[in-house]
Design brief:
With 67 residues, this protein is an all-alpha fold. Helix content is 75%, strand content 0%. The protein has a domain of 30 residues.
Length: 67
């Protein structure tokens, strides 16, 4: 059987390499601008338009069910 100590050391070395690679990639991914960085706020007028459009959609659905 192979020397288990040597195998463990080799695995630890590989794990260290992988940890460094993950750390590097995490740094790149964190700076990609993918996250929004907070909640988006809508103006009152925009919320009113969205609400009205949704009411119209629900009215269509209810009209189909009533027929």
């Amino acid at each position: 059987m192979a020397d288990l100590g040597a195998v463990v050391e080799q695995l630890k070395a590989e794990r260290a390499k992988l940890d460094r690679a993950i750390e590097a990639l995490s740094g790149i991914a964190g700076k990609s601008g993918k996250g929004r960085g907070g909640k988006r706020t809508l103006s009152v007028a925009a919320r009113a338009r969205i609400a009205e459009a949704q009411r119209k959609r629900w009215a269509k659905v209810k009209a189909r069910k009533g027929s």
